Amino acid sequence: MKAGQWDPKQKKVVINDIPKPEAGPGQFLVKIQSASLCHSDLLMEMRPDYNVTLGHEGVGHIETIDPAAEGKGFKVGDAVGFDYFIGACFECENCMVHNMWCKTGNSRLQGFMVDGYFAEYAVVDWQNAILLPKVLDMSKTAPLFCAGITAFHAVDSCELKPGQWLAVIGCGGLGQYATQYAKAMGFKVIGIDISDDQLAMAKKVGADATFNSMTNKGYLDEIKKLTDGGCHASAVFAASNPAYAGATKVLRIGGLLMVIGIAPKPLEFSTFDLTTGVYRVKADSTSIPQRMKKAVDFTAKHNIQPDVDFRKIEDLPAMVEQMHSGKAEKRLVVVF
């Protein structure tokens, strides 16, 4: 089968022909329908020193079921999405509790890139899979299984009430998902970015107001006036330290900062501001498979789907370069 892989010797993404996998104990073999590119696919520290298939956002149809995975509510032909855990050895269970890579040396648990989804087939542990509601477009649903679920968890954990203000900082793929979720939950949304194109996308999917924090020098004052004192929460989806630097400034007293984007350098917060309640800080992620259903059900109920750019597997190297350069305005999705 064809697979998009990171080649450490060539130090680039290549398309290789590799053996079709077989379902192991407790697994499905899934024919991938679509797979999408996520910013974390670009992180060099997540790449091993051997060829590895990229991608951790995917959906597809079950082709075979290992006997140990039978009777779990799935059947051959089912449309499924899946979280990106490869499995759990239960030696320490840290991987399940903390959504982390295995430290025990179990090769099946070296991270989500061990068995990536930019391939025609993939194996999936049954515990990590969920049936896809029929209302969701399979070709557009791959981004849900990282970007979408992460954005849902972020918005859902912001402790907001209908009518309150959420600042979405970083209006790319995750930010566009977050805007749709927030509007569906009854919140008011401000989109903040340094790209007018991304801000236009945020407006398109429902943002009440948008601000370019680079070109509009008075945006903080405008936000405070619009929200009558500041946002009740801000969620940072940009993988940028400057994005975090301005995130607390859009909050009202006692507002919540939601940490999502993985910044390259450690974040700095004022301990005085935290201890005196000027603002609060939380963080969330895609998290464990047990949290998927709430996000998937909400997505289907409100028919929330991302704006995507469809590609072929042969386009993956160019897709990586496009995202790396910051020119990807939509989710980039390979359809098989």
Plain-language structure description:
The chain is of the alpha/beta class and 336 residues long. It is built from 10 helices and 16 strands. The strands form 3 sheets. Strands 3, 5, 6, 7, 8, 15 and 16 form a 7-stranded mixed beta sheet that branches. Strands 11-10-9-12-13-14 form a 6-stranded parallel beta sheet, with helices on both faces. Strand 10, helix 5 and strand 11 (209-212) form a beta-alpha-beta unit. Helix 3 (147-156) crosses helix 9.
Indicate the topology.
Elements: E1 2-7, E2 12-17, E3 27-36, E4 52-53, E5 57-65, E6 79-82, H1 94-98, E7 121-125, E8 129-131, H2 138-141, H3 147-156, E9 165-169, H4 173-184, E10 188-193, H5 196-204, E11 209-212, H6 219-226, E12 231-236, H7 241-245, E13 251-259, H8 271-275, E14 279-283, H9 292-301, E15 308-311, H10 316-324, E16 331-335
Parallel strand pairs: 9-10, 9-12, 10-11, 12-13, 13-14, 15-16
Antiparallel strand pairs: 1-2, 1-4, 3-5, 3-7, 3-16, 5-6, 6-8
CATH class of the largest domain: Alpha Beta
> What is the CATH topology classification name of the largest domain?
Quinone Oxidoreductase, Chain A, domain 1
| Outline | globular
**CATH architecture descriptor of the largest domain:** Alpha-Beta Complex
Average residue pLDDT: 89
CATH superfamily grouping of the largest domain = Medium-chain alcohol dehydrogenases, catalytic domain
Low-confidence stretches: 86-114
How many distinct beta strands? 16
Could you give the distance between the termini?
11 Å
- Measured as a percent range, the helix fraction is 10-25%
Which structural class do you get from the secondary structure elements? alpha/beta
Number of domains: 2
The main sheet comes to: 7 strands, mixed
The number of helical elements comes to 10
- Which percent range describes the beta-strand content? 25-35%
Q: Which H/E pattern describes the elements?
A: EEEEEEHEEHHEHEHEHEHEHEHEHE
Looking at the chains present, what oligomeric state does this protein adopt? Answer: single chain
Keywords: Metal-binding, NAD, Oxidoreductase, Zinc
Cofactor: Zn(2+)
Protein name: Alcohol dehydrogenase
Family: Belongs to the zinc-containing alcohol dehydrogenase family.
